User: Fold this.
Amino acid sequence: MEKSVKFIVTGGRGFIGSHFVEEALSRGHDVIDIDKMTYAAHTSLPWDNSSNYTLKVADIAEIEHLPSCDVIFNFAAESHVNNSIRETEPFVKSNVLGVHNLLNLVRGKMKYNRPLFFHISTDEVYGDRLEGSFLETDKLSPSNPYSATKASAEMLILAYSRTYGIDYIISRSANNYGDRQFDEKLIPKCISSIKNDKKIPIHGDGTYIRDWTYVKDNISGLFCILESGKKNEIYNVSAENHMRNLEVVDEVLSWYNKDREMVEFVPNRWGQDLRYSISSQKLRNLGWSPSHKRGIYKWY
Ligand code: NAD
Assistant:
């Protein structure tokens, strides 16, 4: 992409959104970041005073105006499964009504002036599977309120595209990890527990399998899709790096010369998914491959 693009990024103060903003700015693009600044948002980031970055503190479910732009990257969401099991409303509001509102704002623009709606979804919309990997064409079967809201948003996007002619791209990403991830997720929780000499809580017996992708590989995948992918398509983004939760914890423990004595097994979360696995062949066919393919990359 040679010319400068004007992006609206929603949720750009969160974990993955902040890496997208960082990369977009470093490529010379303009970013308007719409973020509600929930508990998961970073209050201060190195590019806050950059001339091509603007932060608007607002809820995507409530905004009434969308500044003009070329592409909307929608990262904004309530993202923590355990919170969604405790209280579903904020998830429905941000993840479903928020997307509904953004789609209506896009629809309200003249056709020639409508941005591409690039929506960030998750491998969790497929539910779990014990063998093999999901393709983009497989049926959605979410297991918990978080993934159900993400799947609902996707349904709205497909319907708005068919009914009103809105152009979209949906990426479904595997578990991301890296710098700036909020403490509630597995790897940052391990690191903070080790640093504070506390036990690391692991659901069940730690055998659940997730597909771990370094966040900057996810971002390079998103730019690859934007530059080389087709609109009105869905792309899985995954390093296809399957690890049991306990293997992930072992690796992080080894960074600090600690052992399994620090692990505490806690009851399963309700509706626990056993194994996530998606194929990223469609994205790889565009020329993308992850820079970190196996294990957990020690990013700092
Ligand atoms: P995060 O919780 O770290 O950040 C979410 C950001 O969105 C925060 O800055 C928050 O303030 C903002 N936000 C939340 N609700 C909002 C609203 N209504 N209006 C405006 N801003 C709002 O999340 P993350 O881990 O960076 O995930 C980003 C996106 O990627 C989410 O859509 C999530 O579903 C998806 N995803 C995440 C992962 C992962 O491993 N973290 C994997 C696959 C997909």
Q: What stands out?
A: Residues 104 and 243 are 40 Å apart (CA to CA). The longest helix spans residues 145-164.
